[in-house]
Write a structure and sequence with these properties.
Number of strands: 22
Distance between the termini: 37 Å
Mean pLDDT: 97
Structural class: alpha/beta
Radius of gyration: 21 Å
Shape: globular
């Protein structure tokens, strides 16, 4: 089979790249070992985070570091055996999370983030899956007035510098918006610009179907077999060898399985995360996704039920599941909202692909012609899927990119 482009990886980034290429008249083979959106893109919190101008940094305050050191929190957990391997990455991550560095990163990162909702809405409408997007935003909820007031100051800075829009809800307003929450909560910050996705996996699969509708092919194959074929590339699949002029590596936390073989030593790591779905008790309704800021877990209404998601687990990518954070979060979440029985037979686990400077790798491969990178989106893979898809497609076909890709290049200082 011969096509114009091979896209390796059918997560939300890969399917978005494939759809945008096919829209521009380039024939595409979308290759994955599983179905579309069945890995990391399936299990996230379902947010398209227009407010997410600051990528998730490593804490610098002593209190948070002390809490994490005990390894008993919900928002962070680590495998002691993995720390020697992760230490160089974590140190660089910590350095880049310093206030001055984080601010500089945000000013680059916002160039992508500011387009995230519009690009997803446009692509989802074309794909016929726009009903999965809900323009309801999401909330940070607070248990103490001190934490609420600190958040109000912070989001006001985001508004002035980055155009982030939000409403502050006092105790009464929060009760009116979410009558089934714990009545002791003091208030919330409601980010109004983001979209919530009722089924992230279905959104990714919808983009895959749209790619096929436009003439693209989805094929089960082994990305590790990618190799140069003259001026182009080829990969082995269940339908035989596929050859193409260009190839895109959009493999998320598995990108290194291909990039290392091609001579790239990029400082990539993973943050693992877990989720579980629950039925609500009785007639209880959760109207908005929300983060329990002072406890470190997230709940969201999803097609399958109320999804409870945990923070970051620092571990080797392929280590066995250890859903201890979920076990810690569940009783606290039940006190927050009347969760009923579990829907899933066992906790789901996924891996977020991370770089030490917290920005994705988007653009041409420095050492190879006609090879393109689109990975490393950490907590914002869903958020930036459609943006990345359009940007990479524009670069490949030679259109003027709608976002300057230079800060996200693979040979930037933050990845050396």
């Amino acid at each position: 089979m011969k096509v114009d482009a091979i896209v390796l990886g059918a997560g939300i980034v890969g399917v978005s790249v494939a759809a945008h290429l096919q829209k521009r008249g380039r024939s595409v083979a979308l290759v994955d070992r599983r179905g579309a959106g069945e890995e990391t893109s399936y299990g996230n919190a379902g947010l398209i985070q227009r407010e997410g101008v600051y990528p998730y940094g490593f804490p610098h305050d002593f209190g948070a570091l002390l809490r994490y050191a005990t390894n008993r929190t919900i928002d962070a957990h680590y495998h002691l055996s993995a720390l020697p391997k992760l230490a160089p990455f974590l140190f660089r991550y910590w350095l880049n999370s310093r206030a001055s560095h984080h601010e500089a990163i945000a000013r680059q990162y916002v160039r992508l983030i500011e387009h995230c909702v519009a690009e997803h809405r446009a692509l989802a409408t074309e794909a016929g899956v726009d009903s999965l997007l809900r323009p309801i935003g999401w909330m940070q909820i607070f248990r103490t007035e001190k934490e609420l007031q600190e958040a109000i100051v912070e989001v006001d800075e985001w508004r002035r510098h980055f155009g982030v829009e939000s409403d502050t809800l006092d105790r009464a307003a929060l009760r009116a918006a979410e009558p089934h929450l714990d009545q002791s909560l003091v208030g919330a910050v409601h980010f109004t610009q983001p979209d919530s996705v009722s089924d992230p996996g279905a959104l990714a699969d919808g983009y895959r179907k749209y790619t096929e509708k436009l003439g693209g092919k989805f094929i089960i194959g082994d990305a590790r077999t990618l190799e140069q074929n003259g001026a182009g590339w080829r990969v082995a699949t269940n339908e035989g060898t596929v050859e193409a002029g260009s190839a895109v590596i959009a493999l998320g936390p598995w990108a290194d399985l291909v990039t290392v073989r091609l001579g790239y030593k990029l400082p990539l790591a993973v943050k693992r995360g877990y989720h579980m779905h629950y039925k609500p008790q009785g007639n209880a309704v959760l109207n908005h996704p929300m983060l329990d800021v002072e406890r470190g877990y997230f709940i969201a209404p999803m097609a399958r039920g109320i999804r409870l998601t945990t923070g970051a687990e620092f571990a080797n990518r392929d280590a066995p599941k250890t859903p201890v954070q979920l076990g810690r979060a569940e009783p606290i979440a039940r006190a927050l909202f009347p969760l009923g029985e579990r829907v899933d037979q066992e906790p789901w686990m996924g891996c977020r692909p991370c770089t030490p400077d917290m920005m994705p790798v988007i653009g041409p491969a420095p050492k190879h012609a006609n090879l393109w990178f689109a990975f490393g989106h950490a907590h914002h893979g869903l958020t930036l899927g459609a943006v990345t898809g359009r940007l990479v497609a524009e670069l490949i076909v030679g259109e003027k990119p709608f976002v300057d890709p230079y800060p996200f290049r693979a040979d930037r200082p933050g990845l050396r």
